Amino acid sequence: SQTIHQWPATLVQPVGSPLSLECTVEGTSNPNLYWYRQAAGRGLQLLFYSVGIGQISSEVPQNLSASRPQDRQFILSSKKLLLSDSGFYLCAWMGRENSPLHFGNGTRLTVT
Amino acid sequence: DAKTTQPNSMESNEEEPVHLPCNHSTISGTDYIHWYRQLPSQGPEYVIHGLTSNVNNRMASLAIAEDRKSSTLILHRATLRDAAVYYCILRDHFGGANNLFFGTGTRLTVIP
Q1: pLDDT tens-digit profile of A13-46?
Q2: DSSP label at B102?
Q3: What residues of A are in contact with residue B105 (Cβ under 8 Å)?
Q4: Contact between residue B18 and residue B108 where contact means Cβ atoms under 8 Å apart
Q5: Residue B78: is it exposed, middle or buried by C-beta count within 10 angstroms (0-12/13-18/19+)?
Q6: Which chain A residue is nearest to residue B98, measuring alpha carbons?
Q7: How many CB pairs under 8 A join A and B?
Q8: What is the 3-state composition of chain A as percent helix, strand, coil, each rounded to the nearest 5?
Q9: Which residue of A has its CA nearest to B39?
Q10: Could you count the other beta carbons within 10 Å of the beta carbon of residue A46?
Q11: A90–B105: do the CB atoms touch at under 8 Å?
Q12: How far apart are alpha carbons B69 and B39 in whole angstroms?
């Protein structure tokens, strides 16, 4: 069966520090991969998505970047965190067309 | 992209049925209606989806209006574990998940 792993679960980082969040998917190949952010009490905002290795589409220009070095690995990064980067970050994958989105358990990031 | 409208919150007594409404008056002919739910501090999980006919699965039922401009997610017997935020979203049959709009959903409170 397919599983998605996202870590760490929580993270507290100072302003100006770098960020690296990792997401891996098991049990499937060539998934579409997604990074979302959820601010407190808000809906989900799509940040990046990828349809294949090295292919990244950005939905919202900002202080973050994404990379997909391997088929089932998706990384969210920042060189210098801002206070506004705090939030709940969710990785998700989708298999064949119109199949459901499967989310990880998220990373709660607090930038202090 | 077509959007959906849901009540901000609803309450239900435990072991009673719950009907969660969703309006999508601008739905297109190729849009599927998807429902997800998000438990506290977790990523959203897929619940059910449909196109025109009513759908049933082990988690819930989906009733779709004849004109497809509204739908209702039905939990037949609410349990405390069903307390979550429920999202109704539209998804084009031929599209990926990069244009899905997760709003603020309906926060369901289950009263013991």
Answers
A1: 999 999 999 999 999 999 999 999 998 878 888 9
A2: B
A3: 43
A4: yes
A5: buried
A6: A49
A7: 57
A8: 5, 60, 40
A9: A105
A10: 21
A11: no
A12: 27
